[in-house]
Request: fold
Amino acid sequence: MKQQIYSAALYLRLSRDDPGAGDSGSIKTQQMMLERYCEEQGIRIFDRYIDDGFSGLNYDRPAFQRMLEDIKSGFVNFVITKDLSRLGRDYIQTGHYTEMFFPQHGVRYLALNDGVDTLNDNNDIAPFKNILNDMYAKDLSRKVKTAKRTRAAQGAFIGSHPPYGYRMCADNCNVLEIDEEVASVVRRIFHMALSGMGAVSIAKKLREERILTPAAYKVSQGDTRFAHLFEGKPESLRCRWAYTTVHRTLSDRVYLGHMIGHKSQVLHYKTKQRAAVPKSEQLVVEHTHPALVSEEDFERVQKLIRVRHSPITFPGDNIFRGLLFCDECGHHMSMAHKPYRGKTTAYYRCMCHYHYPEQCGHTHYLRYDDLYQLVLRDVRQITGLLSGHMDELVKRLYEQQQEKSGNKRIQAQIDKLEARQEAITVIIGQLYEDFAAGRAAVQSFNSLLAKYQQEQEKLSVQIESLRSSLVECQDPAAGCAMLREAAATYLDVQELDENLLHDLIDRIYIGHRKKKRDKWEQDICIAYQFVGELPF
Reply:
């Protein structure tokens, strides 16, 4: 029988989290071990493929992909690794390569230390080793998360690059110190905000003065991580401040000298996708580094941000800002403007319907003037009952179910969003199976995976927001008493303003228009502070 002539690929991988990653000693050890085996067996080495510093959960490694291309081209028919974990730690995809890809391309695979050799039929233990490697990666991810959270809770800076206006101390990278070269820019941004300038105006001023953006400044200091943003782009891009950057600066408590950790978290140890953590769960350690702005000035700026309105063509104020929610998906309603009968008319709509129609299947549209009149009429009715017929109001509330209808509505929205989350989890599982079985191309798999993971992140944020708005049921009489106290200065309501609305109303839900018996109807539900939706 003709002896098989092998052209071997030696695949070597080391993760940054693996022992010995600092000096890459393990790579040398792997290489010596595999080369000695090939020399003893008389196997010709085609090439060595080295991924130093790459996770075993990520298969988009440069050397690994180059090896796959050489296999497809027929240059390699034997792949050797030190053990199965060097090939990868995701048991589904590792199994795909050992059980499907390599056999389909006539490639023998050998994991030297694990005794796994596809030339033989005694590899039943291989799937279990892959699962153990996957479990090791999961456990390692958990330990890294715990270590980082512990350091963050102690006030250590654990980010990859310091906030604009600061730099890492030369003798301790976990401590921040002021970067005087740009700290003056941060102070000036706060000063301009205190003088009444909005984020858009401040960004425009910084662009006019040719001040480098935070990313451009880091590149000028030799940080190459942001260099790709400016390669081949006009020089003016380096000074093109965005109003979002200014707004983020004005809202960042790091400039008070506080360290804020755990602002985002990895959703899954395999995908490495991150999601924002609610502020209530973030780790705040005060006075860990010098402040660039005083507590008083910072709080004044936050108040200005809350009350400042965007410059719009509509002559009135958006007094319903922050109160309007889509009855179907729970998203905030957005204000927009359009010409109507010779003048500019404001209206509200749910943008989720346009971006994610699978979450919000209907348009939710309501003109500002119509909403104003409806809410004014309802508020006048409620304040009248509070002042002269509170017993009747309390009685009607007692007749309702013990659980507030407002809470029921919010919980229904949460249930709907969680059901969608579960559906996406199933879809992602099917994607992995299709990819592992070779039914999905790498590009399509990555594109779809990123899309669904992004949707999951948005759903998590929405669910957290809705959960924070759930209120525990309380005695209707006590709730009415608190609402009457809040409404004491608004008993003779002639017109609405922002203070009145936010003092009395918690949320307003906008339903979609439906046609019933040749008439258009639209549900508008007002949830008042302390009592929720009232039975009228």
